[in-house]
Amino acid sequence: MANDKVTSNDVARLAGVSQSAVSRYFTPGTSVSKKTAEKIRAAAEELGYRPNVLARSLITGRSRIIGLVVAYLENYFYPEVVERLSKALQDQGYHVLVFISSIASENVDQITQEILDYQVDGIVLASANMSSELAARCHASGVPIVLFNRLQDDVRLSAVTSDNRAGGRALADLLVSLGHTRCGYIAGFEGASTQRDREQGFCEGLEAAGLTLFARGVGNFRYDEAQAAARRMFAGPDRPDAVFVCNDHMAFAVMDVLRFELGLAIPGDVSVVGFDDVPPARWPAYNLTTIRQNVDDMVAETVATLMQSIKEGEGAARRVILDGTLVQRGSTAQKTPTDETR
Amino acid sequence: MANDKVTSNDVARLAGVSQSAVSRYFTPGTSVSKKTAEKIRAAAEELGYRPNVLARSLITGRSRIIGLVVAYLENYFYPEVVERLSKALQDQGYHVLVFISSIASENVDQITQEILDYQVDGIVLASANMSSELAARCHASGVPIVLFNRLQDDVRLSAVTSDNRAGGRALADLLVSLGHTRCGYIAGFEGASTQRDREQGFCEGLEAAGLTLFARGVGNFRYDEAQAAARRMFAGPDRPDAVFVCNDHMAFAVMDVLRFELGLAIPGDVSVVGFDDVPPARWPAYNLTTIRQNVDDMVAETVATLMQSIKEGEGAARRVILDGTLVQRGSTAQKTPTDETR
DNA sequence: ACCCATTTTGCATACGTATGAAAGGCTGAA
DNA sequence: TTCAGCCTTTCATACGTATGCAAAATGGGT
């Protein structure tokens, strides 16, 4: 790899000081006289020297690398998370090592093993679950884990998520208040806490209004599977008058099927609501009513959780549940006769 | 960090062999007897030992980390690239360390310095430029660089890109063949080779048909700026009858403005074409005619280029230019009177 | 049993860096 | 001028691992 590697020993030689002085010059909180510092600065600049982060990690036990596991970036929500999380950590002097897992999380344990090989200072799991065996392993290694937009029962796992249940509840309340009486639900991946909590909140909201779920499908967080679920749900004569789709990504698919395959009007014939408020939800083509996840705050809490765990070690796992925001747009409307004359 | 770190010395002690034997057991191509191997395997398993990749890098000069610089993940094209590139490299035993740069690339040099601190085995620059000074630095360090979807004149920089110029040309030819005579163009970021080449090909195609560019705007690869550019382009009475938008991401914005703000029909009043064929281009809401970039082949070529450079050192920079594919969808149609009666 | 060629093993060292401890240098007060 | 306290520097070592080299072990042939 390095044909021309400059080390702290080269700098020390040129500056006429010890390697130890060079190291201290580049280590915050240590003492170097002004005179020595200037000699080192000049030598380092002349030779183009920068400390080797990996060699440092051997001594300090800190790699300044955070492992990030994501299952897919197809859903606009996660690219935004990756981008913001990387930036936020970059600002803290850390960098993100990306690992791609499968949607069903069946290879997360293997991937986490690989992550640990890199002596990461922490791990963020976005849209993935971790076995308790691996959670124990990370805990024993002192590597903090933060679940992003997921919850697990393991007390060793910190988590930052939106209040998915309250979000689902709010969407049910909204649809009921708009006069909807036959509400359907299209689920994400059944093994995900986000899917479970959103559905739970939604059903609770319906129940509070004396309703039950009118129809249910499964989209597995995939555009094509959500399309298929919508086709099935709307195949017969008994159709929902509103659909809560577990996330925006799938909601776009459902909307596309309803409009372009079935010739239905949204919200005239059926209201559609999603969850996330990813960019296309705001685009006029979709104009989707949804729950906005506050990605900035989630990222900030994730970084804060990681930094605290890294700094203080042990510590109890931290769970942060942030409120989402109901954003009402053009995919929902009052279900009244006047609605149909527009 | 590690409270309970298991080293090869621990394994050696338990197995009753030397640390050297443990190391050889975990290093491909070295010799260990079956008897010794079994003792080491059992000890390593009992202790949960895995080699420390970072410590290894000190000896081998190989970190098995690839630095990836991306400017934004807002455009659906790049999340897909990150995902596939990460997977492809993961399969080769490498992992991607992500760095987020700004769109205008003004901080790429600083970021590249940081990347080099991690002793990366290679760097991929997606949608970013690198200064020749830094290119020289990487070259001196023996770190191969591959530009992804970008071209630069520096002979030290390998690149993998689509034939953007031919793609732009093909789109011009298509629009002309469909009878369009007033073709507009909305540019991406002016400092990007993709933007320059796509526009160049488009203008060459128009010129070959005896036409010139009817109108031009700049969208800087941003949804909101593309919206503004569309509003300006269609503000007066002299409007284009077709628009080539430099990438799909911006094309969606232009389509949204034309339809929902100006009440224009696509393709009845104006045809719109993009570049990339990102997932929403295939969605019925957009149904966009575009040039498909073969991401799988681009990723494969990028990985092949990196692996070759890492394995063989020096080597001449490699430039791979792949053909895109014209995908004709519902955003374009024949511009005839019969068109207007539908 | 002996010899030879090959495989296997352990020793010693190095990779690039940070750090504890001891020694040296500097500064201010008596 | 001397002394005490604090700052600065260097030496020696360690971090976890791979590898060159010499010695030991192994297996096959005579």
UniProtKB/TrEMBL annotation, chains A, B:
Transmembrane segments: none
Segments forming domain HTH lacI-type: 6-60
GO terms of molecular function: DNA binding
SMART domains assigned to the protein according to its UniProt record, in alphabetical order: HTH_LACI
Gene3D superfamilies in alphabetical order: 3.40.50.2300, lambda repressor-like DNA-binding domains
Keywords annotated in UniProt: DNA-binding, Repressor, Transcription, Transcription regulation
Domain of life: Bacteria
Name assigned to this protein: LacI family DNA-binding transcriptional regulator
Originating organism: Shinella lacus
